[in-house]
Amino acid sequence: MTKQADLITEFLDKKTIDSLSVFLNKEKGYESSADAIAAAFGFGKGFSKMKEEAVEKLVSSFKNNLTLLIQKTWVEKSDIALKDQLLYQLDVFLSNKSWKDNYVLFLQLINQAVFLMFGQKPDTPDFAEYTLRIDPEFGIFWWYISNLPPKTEWSEEKCRLAMLLGMYFLANY
Predict the structure, then answer these.
(1) How far is CA 118 from CA 113, 127, 128, 139, 173, in A?
(2) b/e map 58-92, b = 16+ CB within 10 Å
(3) Rounded to whole angstroms, what are the CA distances from 29 to 13, 43, 48?
(4) Count of Cβ atoms closer than 10 Å to residue 104 Cβ
(5) In this structure, what are the phi and psi dihedrals at residue 2, rounded to the nearest 5 degrees?
(6) Closest by Cα among 152, 150, 159, 141 to 100
(7) Which of 13, 28, 30, 56 is deepest in the core (most CB within 10 A)?
(8) CA-CA distance, 30 to 35, in Å (whole number)?
(9) pLDDT digits (tens, 9 = 90+) for 15-35
């Protein structure tokens, strides 16, 4: 068991932890697992059944909050181009209507934004433990994101739910 897996049990119950595995591995019937993960991010009931109006509002909040996080993050001069590139990629991401086609770009956006925010590469082994210790809420989010597969052949709906979970956290961070 990794340090992250050991440490996450201090912040989440077994049912929520198991929900991630169910969500990742089931082709159908994963909605209640997505709801459990959303609850860990502070969402009430019925995340997987969110109406289209609520999804549009969530995507808008995600865009506004991520844009603000990117713009307000202080970076070294050498990383200014990365900020500009990230803002451009965010616009590209939001203009594409296919959740499935956007999945890889979504993970790239999140990883690059987290790199800007924390100043260290999020794929290093100790990063997950670091985030859980300094900001448990963000650490739970990172536990979720870092367990998503880098590429997937999931359905459009499953990709949508996976990304909306991440968006929900960042829209409210």
Answers:
(1) 9, 10, 12, 12, 14
(2) bbeebbebbeebbeebeeeeebeebbeebeebbee
(3) 21, 19, 11
(4) 14
(5) -80, 165
(6) 159
(7) 30
(8) 9
(9) 999 999 999 999 999 999 999
Please tell me the distance from the alpha carbon of residue 158 to that of residue 143, in angstroms, as a whole number. Answer: 18
Handedness of CA 92, 97, 100, 106 (dihedral sign): positive
CB 99 within 8 A of CB 159: yes
Q: Comparing 3 with 107, which gets the higher pLDDT? A: 107
Quick: pLDDT tens for 40-74: 999 988 999 999 999 999 999 999 999 998 888 77
| Cβ-based neighbours of 64, under 8 Å, separated by 6 or more | 171
C-alpha closest to that of 34 among 162, 135, 157, 122: 162
Token pair recorded at residue 2: 């990794």
The pLDDT of residue 171 is above 80 = yes
Cα-flanking dihedrals φ and ψ of residue 50, to 5°?
-60, 135
Per 3-state DSSP, the chain is made up of helix, strand and coil in percentages (nearest 5) of 75, 0, 25
Tell me the C-alpha distance between 124 and 120, whole Å.
8
